[in-house]
Amino acid sequence: MSHVPKRTVEELEALVGQEMGVSRWFEVTQDKIDKFADVTEDWQFIHLDPERAKAETPFGGTIAHGFLTVSLLSAMVYEAGPGVKGIKSSVNYGFDKLRFVSPVKAGARIRGRFTLTKFDRSKPGEVTYHQNVVVEIEGEEKPALVCDWIGRVYI
Description:
Elements: E1 6-7, H1 9-13, E2 19-22, E3 26-27, H2 30-40, H3 45-48, H4 50-56, H5 66-71, H6 73-80, E4 83-84, E5 89-100, E6 109-120, E7 126-137, E8 145-154
Parallel strand pairs: 1-4
Antiparallel strand pairs: 2-6, 3-6, 5-8, 6-7, 7-8
């Protein structure tokens, strides 16, 4: 459930260039990584075998799948993204840029920081918006990922 105040389309459009919000911290547990591996059938040892990952990788243990981190954006945006008054539905339209900057180690906590960068309401009943998203890793200097995420809402 969103904790972000819902705004009118006009109010949101006026906020282009501003940070919309920051989500709470999400813990990326080994159990969460294991379940994601089962759902996606990506069972690479760097995600699932702590001893082998510690011995054979530079990460010191297992790391989350990059796509698990991306998937958590949905939960993060409900807390910190732009809330729009009067919407009928919303969809994920995609990404223009997405970079995995640093690995998320099992047990780490991450959060999303959302800045509204573009707002297009040229089609009646439809708004397409871009957000710069930075997923921070608690206690780390470099983020887990950065992206330009595009969303669309129908009014």
